[in-house]
Design brief:
Layout lengths: L2 H22 L4 H15 L8 H16 L4 H8 L2 H26 L8 H12 L4 H10 L4 H30 L16 H20 L5 H15 L9 H16 L11 H29 L3 H8 L4 H11 L3 H25 L16
Length: about 375
């Protein structure tokens, strides 16, 4: 099969899985179904594929949809929480440091064949909370084992993306989660003439971010452009539900295809440690979110999603589908990602690491 033939077959599998999840009434079925189905198929050796252009389009749609939540009133409310966002950023950096120590304790002997700097870079960039692709790139520049870094991030994302939505849906069905009314979305109204305006402006934002070589340009560029429209009072159409579902599907596929057959052979003990460490981080983040809820007055569910060690799009989609405070969740996750991308590299060097190397060197191989 050609690349596009494999991509089409993967999308068909993802669509069937999404429909099954809709019938089963799982949380965020249009993302979780495709994610799980493609992950299982990939590990079993099926020739699954994800096209970057489709993933970018999915991130574009989700970014545009999330930006519509940031009305002037909501944005002012979110801005008043700046101190809580700063605490959440510091918390994420602290969690990464704890995860680093856990990997050092569990695997120092396993990777004794690596140079001290290569081993330190491997576990350091594997432990950062956020920016999986960027952390893998930084790891490569510092001569680390990029396969281990990517595997740790993939395990973390998979566990958080699967477990948190199910936990939120269970809590909502048993306790009836009611978030601050100011954070609820406006009634969705789709107007195709306005939708073209939203599409054009957000596409321009994404292209600008791409030209500037920023991280997640199709998501961040569309989000910022959509926010600007909403903040200035420009009336634009809501994103149709069908388009949002399709975007979730291709994002789920892009996550699922990471788990190729070779993945399960990547240092099984390392994967197990990453899984245990992720569980611990999720438990600690739950306690942190609950404490922060008491300080801010926000619902714990909103802050659990905002501080969960997952990805921006996945946690924001969960908040969107379950109506659990999209603007706050998005603001917390975006600020954490930006802070991590800005600070992780310098902190590594300040704490004894070296600058990037021009070539990977021999330490990447066993």
């Amino acid at each position: 099969m050609t690349f596009w033939g494999r991509t089409a077959a993967t999308l068909l599998l993802a669509l069937l899985a999404a429909q099954v999840c809709v019938v089963l009434q799982t949380p965020i079925p249009w993302m979780l179904g495709p994610l799980l189905a493609t992950a299982v198929a990939s590990v079993l050796g099926a020739p699954t594929r994800s096209a970057n252009v489709l993933r970018n389009a999915g991130q574009w749609v989700i970014g545009a949809a999330l930006g519509l939540y940031f009305t002037p009133q909501v944005s002012a409310f979110v801005a008043s929480l700046w101190w809580a966002i700063v605490l959440a950023v510091l918390w994420a950096l602290a969690l990464g440091a704890l995860f680093d120590r856990w990997l050092q304790r569990q695997h120092a002997a396993d990777f004794a064949h690596l140079s001290p700097l290569a081993w330190r870079a491997t576990r350091y960039f594997a432990s950062a909370i956020g920016g999986a692709s960027e952390m893998t790139l930084l790891a490569e520049r510092h001569a680390a084992r990029t396969d281990l870094v990517a595997a740790a991030h993939s395990v973390r994302l998979m566990m958080v993306v699967i477990s948190v939505p199910f936990a939120m849906q269970w809590a909502q069905s048993h306790w009836g989660l009611q978030v601050d009314a100011r954070l609820l979305p406006r009634p969705p109204v789709t107007d195709w003439s306005e939708l073209w305006l939203l599409a054009g402006v957000t596409a321009a934002g994404a292209l600008v971010m791409t030209g500037l070589k920023r991280t997640n340009p199709w998501f961040m560029g569309a989000l910022l452009a959509s926010m600007c429209l909403t903040l200035t009072g420009v009336q634009v159409s809501a994103v149709p539900t069908e388009l949002s579902n399709a975007a979730q599907l291709v994002i789920g596929v892009s996550l699922g295809v990471r788990f190729q057959r070779e993945f399960v052979h990547t240092a099984p003990r390392w994967l197990a440690s990453a899984a245990v460490g992720t569980l611990a981080m999720m438990a600690l983040s739950l306690g942190f979110a609950w404490a922060l809820s008491g300080l801010t007055g926000l619902h714990p569910a909103t802050l659990i999603l905002g501080t969960a060690p997952g990805g921006i799009a996945e946690m924001a989609i969960t908040a969107k589908v379950l109506q659990l405070g999209v603007p706050v969740v998005t603001a917390f996750q975006v600020c954490r990602l930006v802070a991590v991308l800005i600070l992780v590299g310098p902190i590594y060097q300040w704490t004894g690491g070296t600058g990037p190397r021009t070539s990977p060197g021999p330490d990447r191989a066993d």
